[in-house]
Amino acid sequence: MPGGAGSSQPGGDRPRIVALGGGFAGLGAARKLEDAHADVVLVDANDYHTFQPMLYQLATGLLDTTAVAHSLRDLFQHQKNATVHQATVSSVELDSRTVQFVDMPPLQYDYLVVALGAVVQFFGCDGAAENAFPLYTVEDALKVRSHIVERWEAADRDPSLVDDGALNVVVVGGGPTGIESIGALTELYRSDFASDYHGIPSGAARLTLVEAGSCLFPMFKPDIREYAQHELEERGVEVMLGERVEAVEPTRVKLASGKVLPAHTLIWGAGLQASPLTESLGLKLERGNRVVVDPELRLASHPEVFVAGDIAWITDSGTGDTLPQLGSVALQAGEHAGENIGKLLAGKEPTPFEYTDKGTMAAIARGAAVAQLHGGRTMKGEMAFLAWGAVHLTLLSAWEDRTKAVVDWTWGGLTHERPGRILVGEKEK
Hints:
α1 packs parallel to α10. The protein is globular. It has a six-stranded mixed β-sheet with strand order 5-2-1-9-23-22, covered by helices on one side. Strands 11-18-12-13-14 form a five-stranded parallel β-sheet. The protein contains twelve helices and 27 strands. It folds into two domains: 16-45 and 87-120 and 273-345, FAD/NAD(P)-binding domain, CATH 3.50.50; 128-270 and 360-415, FAD/NAD(P)-binding domain (3-Layer(bba) Sandwich). By secondary structure, the protein is an alpha/beta fold.
């Protein structure tokens, strides 16, 4: 097919559209171009799409890897004008319309969609890069899962490790990632591990959520914030507000207030910054190194380049607010970028992006979730939990993924069992 790896020039009279990133935004853009008279080339460092909202469930053993990661080639096997490559981007040369790769020949493009996502931001916290466990990739989730199981196995062999904090977990960040992660951990610890490790006293593990701000879920209304904190505390989580992590050691977490928490595990859910590639583009960047785009999601200086997803600084055309780094925003923006490229190929004018806010949701634990719907209406409890599950199932990329998720959720709900809580791979020293 014209436009594949090893071909440096766009192919003949068929324009080449290169989409960098196989997340929600890149996926959305490439799929919208299925009927375009063009060659669509999707490139990602991995050969799979990651469903990031479910990574915490992979980390806590409720879902298996194949339920949150799906082959990109499988997703595009029926799109005849699309080619998928696994390669790592090294630079984008805007003036020559060329993308350079670490492990593949360069590609030139007629239109480019930059959707490379974000990386974890540690805000200069000492030791966090070496000792904290982020939760942004499949590899991150698997490391968290293996590390937690290994700590319980070690404490089972040597009970003195319990007093040293081997089972304790500190989660940083009072947003959805942090709250969903520690909520899932309460279920794993209080039910599964309590049954698995009879020699370890019930309640020996300490679960702590640290948030630098004055409340949890700052994007939600006060009643949801209060509900979330109450539900976590009811499940044994110690919520520490107004506290900032200053340093992370392998077995200790130091707070700016001077407190020291004994914990062998710190999960970082406190922030993201755009892909480091943005720093090399010579463009105006906003907070978190996000790239500023025009209303059509293009670079003002290079209108053939569209930027979408976590890497983009997008202003809502209706409210003037900056849109958050959410999967729903990324998917809608990616699809709009694809639609606009299709319009340009057809000789039509692109249109401004208008985000449709369908509400914000987060799960706290089994049967407990929150939702703030468009218009201000809020939901809490079991109804919100059912709505949360339904919305996330619609976002999963393939029916096979949805089936796996439904089976795993149903089985976990009925039995409280998590078959993923096994230790595979090299043991920690």
